[in-house]
Amino acid sequence: MPYICPMRFDIISVLPDLLTSPFAHSILQRAQTKGIAEIVVHNLRDYATNKQKSVDDYPYGGGSGMVMSIPPFAACIEKLKCERSYDEVIFMSPDGETLNQTIANGLSIKKNIIILCGHYKGIDQRIRDIYVTREISIGDYVLSGGELPAAVLVDAVTRLIPGVLNDETSALSDSFQGELLDAPIYTRPADWQGHRVPDVLLSGHEAKINEWRHEEALKRTQQRRPDLLK
Ligand code: SAH
Predict the structure, then answer these.
(1) Is residue 167 situated within a structural domain?
(2) In angstroms, what is the span from residue 91 Cα to ligand 1's centroid?
(3) How many whole angstroms from 8 Cα to the centroid of ligand 1?
(4) How many domains would you assign to the chain?
(5) pTM above 0.90?
(6) Residue 168 in contact with ligand 1 by CB distance below 6 A
(7) Residue nearest to atom 9 of ligand 1 (CA)
(8) Which of 94, 151, 152, 202 is the most buried (most CB within 10 A)?
């Protein structure tokens, strides 16, 4: 087996425990065990220099909510950048570009990525100006911290790295990978209290099954997401 250099994610967070479980199971865990992805979570507080180990401060100009300050983020990012070069420094932020499959595909061919998780009111604008190369939102709503968004991003990207999924074609037929949503899926029993699996799926006729799946995917896309059909 040729050595594959793993794709590396360095996530900087003030609540690293929030990121333990999402990466310790299923496909994300397998990606790491196989050496295809490396996910490292850094505790921002370890980079705080003051006695209280604080990472936030009051906002200039007044107003509600604390602001995450520059020095701990700068120290952590600078240290990481000494160790390797990074393709992107991503800040998870509700005002960033909205995550979609195209963005995930693009990131899945990168090598090293830093992800910053905000909290409270957000982070000092100068961190964004100086270090951040890309800002990504996971949708038009506001969460209390960037950890869940970071986990969503890392999951969406990691499953696309070649070799992570056992059956790689399963990612190709997923919704948003092409312009169609995924077709309906069924498993045993073939009859559940009179609700039957479509006969064609039991026919064993591969061409007919593929045709049926395509038609159903098209129907579903027309009904739910006509905007995807060009
Ligand atoms: N004041 C900010 C929201 C701060 S929420 C604003 O109105 O834009 C605190 C942190 O949670 C953010 O800095 C960000 O890192 C994260 N966050 C919240 N909602 C998010 C979303 N939809 N996508 C990505 N990150 C989000």
Answers:
(1) no
(2) 9
(3) 23
(4) 2
(5) yes
(6) no
(7) 119
(8) 151
Range of the domain at 77: 7-158
Q: Which residue minimizes the CA distance to atom 12 of ligand 1?
A: 118
188 lies in a domain?
A: yes
Which helix (H) or strand (E) is 212 found in, with range? helix 206-224
User: For residues 102 and 156, is the Cβ–Cβ distance under 8 A?
Assistant: no
| Ligand 1 center to 94 CA (angstroms) | 5
Q: DSSP E strands: which ranges in 73-167?
A: 88-98, 112-116, 134-137
Query: Tens of pLDDT along 168-191?
Result: 567 888 889 889 999 999 999 999
CATH code: domain of residue 39: 3.40.1280.10
Q: For 101-130, write each residue's pLDDT tens digit.
A: 999 999 999 999 999 999 999 999 999 999
Strands 195-196 and 7-13: unpaired
Neighbours of 123 (CB within 10 A): 24
Percent of the chain that is helix, strand, coil (3-state, to 5) = 40, 20, 40
Residue nearest ligand 1's atom 18 by CA: 143
